[in-house]
Every structure is written in C-alpha cells, then in structure tokens.
Protein 1
Amino acid sequence: RKEVEQDPGPFNVPEGATVAFNCTYSNSASQSFFWYRQDCRKEPKLLMSVYSSGNEDGRFTAQLNRASQYISLLIRDSKLSDSATYLCVVNGAGGTGRRALTFGSGTRLQVQP
Amino acid sequence: ETGVTQSPTHLIKTRGQQVTLRCSSQSGHNTVSWYQQALGQGPQFIFQYYREEENGRGNFPPRFSGLQFPNYSSELNVNALELDDSALYLCASSLGQPQETQYFGPGTRLLVL
C-alpha cells in the first residue's frame, strides 16, 4: 500500500465547475499536510497547507480528517489556469524522519473552455 | 520565484557514469532536501542535509550520496548510473523546522542512456 494515495485522474471539467480531490495517508503519526501544484515539466509549488479546522484561500478549500487519515481539496469556479497536477503531501510519514515530505502520485486536472 | 536554483537544467549520461547535481538554497535557509521524480510519479525523498550533516534518508542505495557546504548549498552525487535513474531531480530548501514549508528549485532533468 502506498503511503499517500490519490486518484490519478485525469479530471476533465468545464470552466466554472467545482471539482474535489481526495487523498488518504497511511501513517497516523504524520504531522503536517499540504497540497502542492505542479505544472507540466515544472517544479512543485505550494498551493496551501491543510489544517484540521479546514482552511480556505479564495476559490480553494482544504480539509483534513485525522481520524480517517483523509485530506481533500475543493476548487470552486475552475479557471483554465487551474489545469495542472495536484500533489497531496504529508510531512513526517514513511519512517524517513519528521522533515521528509511524502508525496502522492498526483491528480491531473484539465479545465476545458 | 522561490530563490532556489539548480544546475545544470538538463543532463545526458550513459550507464555506469557518475553525475553531480548542484543546488543553491534560498537565502537564510539551512536545510536542503533532495527528491527524485520519475515520469508520472510524485517526487520521492532521497535525503536531507541540515547544517552540513545528513538528517534523514529515503529508500535509495548508497550510490546516491550528497554534501552540504558551509553556505548551505548542496550537491547530489550518483555513481554507477542506471537507466532507471532517468528522472527529474528536485532540491528543496527550508529553515529546518519539522513542519515547515519546503521551497523547490526548478530541477535537473537527467537522462541515462
């Protein structure tokens, strides 16, 4: 079983749609959680951190459920520029030390005009 | 941009050769982490350096080694290259706190023939 699991997609949605991505992680001792965005042939860039209380940044909302070891990302009013791969990331998983980031394989989003 | 730089941007090597990749961290950051990203996968943690000491290692063989210098820049060395080493190599810098955000450089794309 992978330490961080995501649906690979692709998710093809029209502009203006709402889309949700889910992620599960296996290590209950994981300490911090993030969503990164990666454009084609570019480096990952931090989209947002994820907190147990849930957090929102404009059109993006992230949720963490520690009991279920489940993380979600909701994108409202999708834009063409949202097309990218979204990586679910956990810090402190996998026995590699608290500082190592463990990435899911990513979920690809394609927003259509 | 993150202020993290990597060199070279692209590299082609043959099996059995050795390669050195370089990373300059963001100003003020004392921690550098290295990741390998194969096509279609999320980045995989190789190792991390904190104040010139290795501070955690992922599931990579000893032919992957590294250094961190007093100015906190870092090198990743790979000996006896194999075809499967073809990937994007990313470095990320941070201040070294366990739950802190890591900022990625643009990566070095390595092709092993």
Protein 2
Amino acid sequence: NAGVTQTPKFQVLKTGQSMTLQCAQDMNHEYMSWYRQDPGMGLRLIHYSVGAGITDQGEVPNGYNVSRSTTEDFPLRLLSAAPSQTSVYFCASSLRDRGAHGYTFGSGTRLTVV
Amino acid sequence: DAKTTQPPSMDCAEGRAANLPCNHSTISGNEYVYWYRQIHSQGPQYIIHGLKNNETNEMASLIITEDRKSSTLILPHATLRDTAVYYCIVSNSGGSNYKLTFGKGTLLTVNP
C-alpha cells in the first residue's frame, strides 16, 4: 500500500505558466481533498471530491481547477500561476464512513512561483 | 463548524506528559473533536477524536469537559519525535463530513 502519492515533490514555475499537481491513492477512498499551507498557517481547503465525477470548491478555490475521473486520482491544475500561489500543497483521502478521523495525507508538493 | 482556540506554542520535557488544551465554546451537540498533528512540514497525521466521553488510543488520550466547551490532548510520555504542530478541529462526523478546517495549531516542542 503506497497510501497517498503526490508528484512532483518540488516545482518552480514562472508567473503565467500552467501545471498539474498529481495525487493518487490506492486505498479505494471515496473522499479526496486538496489543501494549501502557507508559512506559519494552518491548511486551507482548495477543492474536494466525494467520489468519481463529483467535485466542489473549498475555502480558497480561485486559480485552481480539479477533476475526478477515477476513484484513484485527483489532479489539481494551476491555470496561470501567480506568486501568491507559492505554497505547500497537500492532498488527502478518506473512506466515506470514516470521515474526518480517517484522513491520510500525502507528503506534499512544494511549489514556488517566480 | 465551531471555531477552536489553541495556544500558539508549548514546551514539554522529554518523558513527561504533554497536555495540550483546546477551547471550542461554540461546539454543537453533533460535533466531534478531532486532533491531528504535523511533524516538520510532513502531511498531517490523525491522532484521536471524541464526542463527549474521554478517549484513549495507542498514541494519546483525549479529555473532553462535561460541558464540551474545551478539551485536552494528553501525550503521556512525550518523546523528541512528538515535537510537532498539533491541530484541534471540531467538525460534524455525519455522512457529509469530508472537510477539515485547520487553524494555526499549537507548536509543541519536546526538550531533552
């Protein structure tokens, strides 16, 4: 069991570039989420999904798109990167019947936009 | 979800119990208290959760006051590896509970 796998671990983008942060889980979890964490702050929810084909916005969705075509994968797309999107991004997944106490987090993607 | 208040930092000596407080005075009857921790910028890790009874697992104990307006996470014998940011989260654990709202948490530093 690999758990939640995020790629890449590090990325530097230029302003205006686009990219996709990958997240995959092999635990057959229904729930998947993307969070960002800025220095000295807690995690803030960007987008989440309760199952394949279903996504919704979290607290800070602007500038990001998601899709959930399979149970396993939940990619996060940055459409036109801005310096304000410099952050650490975490993906998480959970079984529906475990909810908030069952979340498994990935190890994060550290993104710098210059 | 109810808001939580935690001290920004705490120190603890290695081998002693670490008691991390959390205030959640606006908690509603169907909301649970969850604790996660984040070690050195890794992804957060679930520790324990409870509704109104005290809970214990292999990692920690959770003490919830009778009025449920506050709680304390107890690490009985803290080690250096317990140095981390600890997050207290209040959320409804119903079928629609898939969103965790993190505050800034408490940075626990365990000293040798």
Protein 3
Amino acid sequence: DAKTTQPNSMESNEEEPVHLPCNHSTISGTDYIHWYRQLPSQGPEYVIHGLTSNVNNRMASLAIAEDRKSSTLILHRATLRDAAVYYCILNSQGAQKLVFGQGTRLTINP
Amino acid sequence: GAVVSQHPSRVICKSGTSVKIECRSLDFQATTMFWYRQFPKQSLMLMATSNEGSKATYEQGVEKDKFLINHASLTLSTLTVTSAHPEDSSFYICSAKRQGARETQYFGPGTRLLVL
C-alpha cells in the first residue's frame, strides 16, 4: 500500500479554518485519497475522499495537488467537536482494506 | 447514513475465558466487514477481512485460531477472542462496506476489552 505522511499534531482556534496536509509522493494512478477522523474513544468516521479533482461536502473540502503527490483537508470553520485524529489514507480502486497510518492529532482551542 | 453497531461496548473478563464481539450493519447489507485492534496512543491495526459466507482473511501476525471470525449474514460479523490474556486488552473496532460500494467504509463505535 502506498504510504502517506502527515504531521503528528496540529493546533488551531475555534471558528478558524484548518488546513491538514498529507504527502503521498508514491501515489499511483488508481489510488483514491481518503480522509477519516477518529474522535476520542470512538470508531473512525468517514470525512471525504477524492481521486483527482477537489471535492466538497458538508464536513470538509479536499484539495488535491495537480501532480497528486499531496493533498489538504480543509475544515472551513473549526469547532471544538472537530478535535480528533485525522487519517489520510490511499486506497486503490477496488481494493478491500484501509491501512491506517499515525494520523494528525488536531487540537482546537476555544 | 450507514450505521454500524458493536456489542458490547465494553467488556471485562478473566484471563483464559473467551469473549465474543458482535458487529452489525443496521441499515445496509455489508458483503465485507473488517476487524481492527487499537492499543492506547496507537493507530488502528487491521486484523482481518471478513466476507459473508467465506473464511476470513487474516493479516500477517494475527492468529486465526485465537481470533475467530464468523460472517454468517450480510449484516452480522462476530469476533471471538479465545482464551483471552491481559495482552489482548485493547479497543476492537469493526467496519463494513456497503454491498456494491467500492470506497467508503463505515465504522462501529468500538468495543473496549479488558482482560484481568
């Protein structure tokens, strides 16, 4: 499985935008970029995924670099409930499993 | 949205006993379910992939005779930790993929196991 690199931790303030980076320089053409997050003592939660184009949903936006070697998850207006570990995962089309890295622990300050 | 439940949410057992954890997809059919284990301050580690009606595929290093997985229906998979020991204490999480869907997995809330 292609590997991703994320900062161990990030900190932001409530009601401000948050940009969570992910590097995936060995991404292949069939790899989708997935983001999940895990709140304390809970199972992970799907956030967003994309292949080449930027994606938006009610939770976040995903900005994918033109060469696809990096991507950024954008939380437009962070709340305290967004404090979680955010995982960036590559998943080949049709592949069964997700392989989790260490993720980025996001702290939101009130 | 797709909902996955787990039961029990937490369990404490004595060393040497077996513990069964259930994972259910409540509002969709899941041809594939996954079992993960997560130790404190660590990431999720995939233990096995479970396909309905067939034997589970275990990841390297996971003992299939110790962690028995049964996926008897499109909405239920069970993980049985046999002869549990304190080192098996962990947070066990299942996930499920919708029938026909190729990407998104839906995760359960997790089961915290403590073996005394």
Protein 4
Amino acid sequence: NAGVMQNPRHLVRRRGQEARLRCSPMKGHSHVYWYRQLPEEGLKFMVYLQKENIIDESGMPKERFSAEFPKEGPSILRIQQVVRGDSAAYFCASSPRGVSYNSPLHFGNGTRLTVT
Amino acid sequence: AQKITQTQPGMFVQEKEAVTLDCTYDTSDPSYGLFWYKQPSSGEMIFLIYQGSYDQQNATEGRYSLNFQKARKSANLVISASQLGDSAMYFCAMSLNSGYSTLTFGKGTMLLVSP
C-alpha cells in the first residue's frame, strides 16, 4: 500500500510566481491535512480537507493561499504571488477518518519550496 | 485551544543508553490523544507512538515508551538502548477527540546519539 505521495519534492519559484503543491493520500484515506514547517520550527497546521470539502482552514493565510481536494485526483495547495517568506517545507498528511482516538496522521515526504 | 511544549531544543546520548524527551501539554478537554513523531535529516515524518487520555497503561512500541503523567500533563518519550539511527528531530503532538480535530505540534527536540 503506497504511502502519502507528494510532488514535487523540491520547487523553486521566483517572487510573484505561483506554486502548486500536490498530495495523493494513502489508498482509502479521505481526510487530508496540510502543514507548513519553517526552518528550526515545528509543523504548523494550515488546512484540513475531506473530499470536496474544506473542514478547517483556520491556519491558512487569508490571501494568496488556497487548497482543494476534488472528488477525483490529488489535493492541491496553491500559493499565488509567492514571497520569500513562503519558503518552507509543506507537508501533507492523510487519515481514514480524521485525527481522533488512536488515529495517527500518515505524512508524505514534503515539498520544499524555495522562493528566490 | 491546545498547546504542546517541548523545552529541550537538543539532547545528547551515548549509544545503548536510554534517553527521555520531555513533552508537556495544555488542554481543558478531557478526551485527547498524544503522539510522537520522528523526523530524520531526510525530512520525512515517521509516526512512533500514541497515548490516549483514558488509557490506563503507558504506551509502548518496541524501544519506545511513553511516560504519561496525566496530573502533570506530561507525555515524555523514553527511548531505550539508543542507536545511531535514532539521531533525528522528535516532535510531540496532540489532538482532541471531539468533533473534527487536527494535530498540534511542539517545536521539537533534536536528539544526537554518539558512538
């Protein structure tokens, strides 16, 4: 059973360009989470999605950031007009029924975004 | 809102010795879960161990055990017989068991195991 797949592994964008990060959850998982990790920091929650629905986007900046998890295909985290402060590792995680009792999140290997 | 605190930025241990990584948490919710993840230098996040707030016994998974002290709100990770491959960042995390919940992470502890 393949794990959570994220691509690309590394992404370089110039200031002002758009970044698209993709995440395919584990088979059978319909809950997807996106986290951001800045250097020397822990993971910060951004957004929680279930198929076609945004459940919680309280951690996502109001502007330039958006996320979707369509009925078919991977979840996409989209950052428009990137700035240097967006440089970070972005992790996707999935679970079969959301984070709750005895239900850990399974993480992908992350996408390292560098804005030049 | 829940909060996780890891007060040790870095820890050193010699191979084959045991080491304890500290984690304290804060929540007013009676039902929650505590998780530990390992992040080696390659960057992936690896789930290690879980403890539920109502579990009577401390969780164990191989060389990992969780020293859960509910009254003190602490969930320390104990790694026995350290190996060189244990060198990594370790993150404590928490979720609530009510409604839709997410994982809240601490800032992590860097563990270095020396020969």
